Amino acid sequence: MVTETLRHPTRRSLLAQAALLSLGASAWESQAARPPPLAQPQVLTAWNVGGQSWAGVWTPGAQPSGIALPARAHQLLLVPGSRGQAQQALVLARRPGEYLMRMDVRRGRALQWHTMEDDRYLGGHAALSASGKTFFTTETDGETGQGLIAERDLQSLEKLREFPSGGIGPHALLLEPAGTLLVANGGILNLPETGRRKLNVGRMEPNLTRLDAATGAVLAQYRLTDSFLSLRHLAIAPNGTVAVALQAEHADPVARTRAPAMALLEGEQLRTVPWDAATGAPPAWDGYAGDVCCTADRFWISAPHAGWLASWTHQGHDLQSQALPGAGALAANGGRWMVGGDEAALLYRDSAPQPRRYGVHMPWDNHAALLHFS
């Protein structure tokens, strides 16, 4: 209980703690904020050092430039700034999250902090609205456990409205080309007083819910037959097919080793992608898929516990895998994408047969976004 309290500070302490952390980190930031060589990839991500969490820019061979955080971050979402402003991003606290922050990416400065409203806790993810002036967050009502979607102002971070997410434990969400919202309701209930403890594993009802972004109305829901497969992260292909990273919650460890890593939503059908019938999953699979991304012709899934990447075509065929201890955060940008592991990051290019390898001294935490390539 003491550990969980430290990981999830009280609402009143969050902004004060963030301000103190920023002051204490100013000297470190001034040394770390030297512009990296343009020939190197730049990645927006979060990391942890000695119990302190950070968000900022990672570049090979350079000390990362970042902002001290009051608790671990989850997603970092690139967003448009006002005219004349530098690149900005939203930093979302890990579930059950209690803070939001808008940052200047290049300068490594916090522009706006926001503590969550009473009885509202972040699910760790956000998506921009079609206008680009607001954004949607996945949240939980701390009193009822109901999953919610909140629409917030991009500059002030204040909540404008909220509506039900269609399930429990909403996590990732995306704005579809048609303007609808697709939400992965993971089915797992977490509350701040119990930290990361899963309160309803035996009663999970995970689903994908499609919502009308304007009214919040539920347009469709999709479920797998196995209710112990939590739907977590999402990626969408140019043809509209959506990949869903899965995390198995079966009590039986053998069942977890047989669980799929990914599901596909194709039109109105949600189905799991089976492992190769002859070989099964790659070694050490424990049912836990981390991140997911879409490249030109494939979906990629990271397996941080098992230590590898797996990929399939957009139709769920031609399984391929690549070993990488601690493989976690994925970041795609056109024909180039990266994955971060415990000690290395791999850069893939569509035109190159093999990835380029970079050393990583501070592993990326959860998610990442590519900023630059030359």
UniProtKB/TrEMBL annotation:
Residues 1-27 form the signal peptide. It holds the Pfam family DUF1513. It comes from the Bacteria. Keywords: Signal. InterPro entries: Quino_amine_DH_bsu, UCP028101, WD40/YVTN_repeat-like_dom_sf. Transmembrane segments: none annotated. This is Twin-arginine translocation pathway signal. It comes from Rhodoferax saidenbachensis.
